[in-house]
Design a protein that fits this description.
Elements: E1 5-8, H1 12-24, E2 30-33, E3 40-41, H2 56-59, E4 60-62, H3 64-71, E5 74-76, E6 81-85, E7 90-93, E8 98-100, E9 103-106, E10 110-112, H4 131-141, E11 146-150, H5 154-165, E12 169-173, H6 186-198, E13 201-204, E14 209-215, E15 218-223, E16 228-231, E17 233-236, E18 240-242, H7 245-249, E19 258-260, E20 271-273, E21 278-280, H8 288-302, E22 316-318, E23 325-328, E24 337-342, E25 346-352, E26 358-365, H9 371-377
Parallel strand pairs: 1-2, 1-9, 2-5, 9-20, 11-12, 11-17, 12-13, 19-21
Antiparallel strand pairs: 3-4, 6-7, 7-8, 10-18, 14-15, 15-16, 22-23, 23-26, 24-25, 25-26
The chain binds flavin-adenine dinucleotide (FAD).
Length: 383
Amino acid sequence: MDDPVVIIGSGLAGYAVARELRKLTAERQIIMLSADHGGFYSKPMLSNALATGKTPESIINSNAQKMAEQLNITIRPNTRVVSIDIENCAIKLESDEQLSYGALVLAVGAEQVRLPLQGSGASEIMTVNNVDDYKLFRNSLVGKKKVAIIGAGLIGCEFANDLATAGYEVDVIDIASQPLGRLLPPAAGAYLQSRLESVGVTFHFEASTQAVDRVDNCLCLMLASGKKVEADIILSSVGLTPSIQLAQMAGLDINRGIVVDQLLKTSDDRIYALGDCAEVVGQVLPFVMPITHAARALAATLAGNSTPVRYPAMPVLVKTPACPTVVSPPEANKQGAWQVESGEESVKALYCDDSGNLLGFALLGKVISEKSDLAAKLPAILN
Ligand SMILES: Cc1cc2nc3c(=O)[nH]c(=O)nc-3n(C[C@H](O)[C@H](O)[C@H](O)COP(=O)(O)OP(=O)(O)OC[C@H]3O[C@@H](n4cnc5c(N)ncnc54)[C@H](O)[C@@H]3O)c2cc1C
């Protein structure tokens, strides 16, 4: 029998590969190792769980044992991999145990970026990138009123909408001049801002947080302008950075993420990577749809049929019910300009090149129904 396929990580990427590979081969031994509980859940649900009435416990669909039975794989939860021995095709666990692999899949995700802030309250700033973080966050909300969110990106705006709608007083602080600064043209950013303000969110733009101090029962954010924002809880959502340490220590090629080619192969022939940790042909795309496409291609490759991953355009739905939003940002190196149509109940922004070819779009409000038609006109992200 072949040596096992070992998957490190039980997030959406790890489970997607396991599921797709199992569809192609009933016999191949699959071992999944996870530093966490190993249960299966949809991470995007964390930022609208209050609105959907979910608790951290009810977000987890199935625990590791049930998933192992369902997929007929071995899952070892609470098992951290500490190193990879490329020459001997083996990994070492925290317990010192060694495990051989035939193929190794890195699905180790990303880490929250932490701002280097001064002050006596800086260590109390929370982040949410998994259900365990979310459990702590939800527990800390009990009996509290005011939440400050640092970062008005996708995740910051989603949490702001969810918390404000649930009755919390929410302040959002960002160095940019609008929400979703990297994804929306100014008119669309202003529309999203006004819709979120209408449910009670207060924004502080072009504002850099310098320090966080604990003052009695409250945390006080000191902004560079001298302004102070008080909160019971602070959530930081200033971005994610791919987890590269394991791969780096093993000597694999690293750039922003773990460098892989279109077969999802790292600089070592037996090691693959996908999901938030991977940089696929130069692109780090920390979203669910790229994982779905990558997992299918990788499973086929692991089953003996080398299959490059292809990405169509993959619009992202922003979960802000106060302002339903879909974005499909143009690639950073593509020249073009935004054409914006604003109305009372919507903003439609199309990013086109000089010849009128559509390269990206942002739809807010009623016009989100045009998503599929517009997506069909966009160029593929990876052919
Ligand atoms: C709040 C929130 C909302 C989101 N909403 C959306 C959305 O609406 N749409 C969308 O497309 N995307 C969304 N995303 C992004 C999407 O959820 C992620 O792209 C996706 O879940 C990443 O999955 P992953 O498996 O690559 O990583 P992760 O889920 O981070 O999984 C990494 C796994 O690796 C394990 N691990 C790490 N290191 C080790 C080690 N050394 N040994 C063993 N195990 C290890 C971890 O324990 C974990 O199980 C959201 C993200 C967040 C945080």
